[in-house]
Amino acid sequence: MKTPVLLLTAPLAAIIVLGLAPLVLVVVWSFCAWDSATYWIKPEFSLAAYGAILEAGRWSVFLSTLGKAFLTSAICLVIAYPTAYATYFLAGRTLSVMLAALLTIPFFTSYLIRSFSWRLLLGRTGVINTLLQQAGITETPLDWLLFSDFAVIVGLVASYLPFATFPILLSMRRVDPIALAASRDLGAGFWTMVRTVLLPLTYSGVFAGFLFVFVMVAGSSTEVQMLGGAGASIVSVMINDVMRVANFPLAFAISTLMLVIVFGLVLIGDALFSLSSLFEERDQ
Fold it and tell me: What is the Rg, in whole angstroms, of the alpha carbon atoms belonging to the chain?
């Protein structure tokens, strides 16, 4: 018994020191006051930072961020599920490795480069507008393709699609092929098998993929700044703007509110979809 405990001591200490402790400080400091004269935190209890979230359009940015995160996560799941199915059930070993590589290769470049490449595709003189005009589909460039919510969602989906695909792929690897074969033997068609057998068995992976993308989008800024135009904003950009004026309690309050939402989603996912089962050992 001593050996497992000793092996767990180092990683648990690292998690507490590097992960939990900073989060606790963020939450605690979010309830402190801000001294505008010294641009520093006053060690006294205050809810002013949380009240300030409702001011100057910050709440609308918060809701917009949640909307973008939810929509991006939903679109990624729609694309990721058939991609994961094809990778695991239809493709051979070599092809599945190639498909997985195609999903990960874009991450060999920076977010900035990937986002800028979409500007080259979606701009007024970009590839898509040029092809549309040459084909006679449009007479003038489509301005809404770039510097719009559409462009932001496209960039976010392209950036974070693998974070939805791989958890689903992991959950599919845990599905017993006998269960799928039995459903086919009982006369279930493909869509019936997916809806009644495969999808319920992969709920944990679906929700994990949704959660990963949701969190990544909520903390992103590059895609919004590069593709959304000068007026576009998101929570991470708002936090950066607040930090520039050293209003740390407000920045920590915004971060704490996002943490509460994320942890709430984790608890809901574990209760409804057995999220923790994704990490349990598979019975052989």
Answer: 23
Nearest alpha carbon to residue 250 among 235, 232, 265 = 235
Which tokens in the block code for residue 70?
Answer: 């939810």
d(C-alpha 246, C-alpha 243), whole Å = 5
Of 244, 238, 251, give the one whose Cα is nearest residue 58: 238
DSSP letter, residue 43: E
Contact yes or no for 159/220 (Cβ under 8 A): yes
pLDDT tens digit sequence for 208-261: 999 999 999 988 888 888 898 777 788 988 888 888 888 889 999 999 999 898
Report phi then psi at 162, rounded to 5: -60, -30
Closest CA to 258 of 5, 6, 30: 30
Query: Which is it for the CA torsion 220, 214, 227, 109, positive or negative?
Result: positive
Number of Cβ atoms within 10 Å of the Cβ of 41:
17
Nearest to 69 by CA among 262, 266, 279: 262
- Angstrom distance (rounded) from CA 129 to CA 138: 8
